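Checklist before submission:
- one chain only
- standard amino acids only
- sequence pasted in full

Submission:
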Amino acid sequence: MSLTIVENATCTFCGCVCDDIELHAEGERIVKTKSACSLGESWFKNHTAERLYPDALIDGEPATSPARPSGKPFRWPS
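Returned file contents:
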């Protein structure tokens, strides 16, 4: 598995919004942080980039947009 390094990541866990954090990820899991406080390190390491849920639901179904492969244009529910 290859190591991905993200420089200047922003942590939004607390109101400080630190933006000088370096993240090291293996696959979808963050395995190391640099320049993060203990709260930020815990927050990053316990979250993944995997897509378990859709971005939005409409009537319990994943929302679609015109750019989606479904080809159906987005319509707001009435």
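Reviewer check: The chain has a mean pLDDT of 83.
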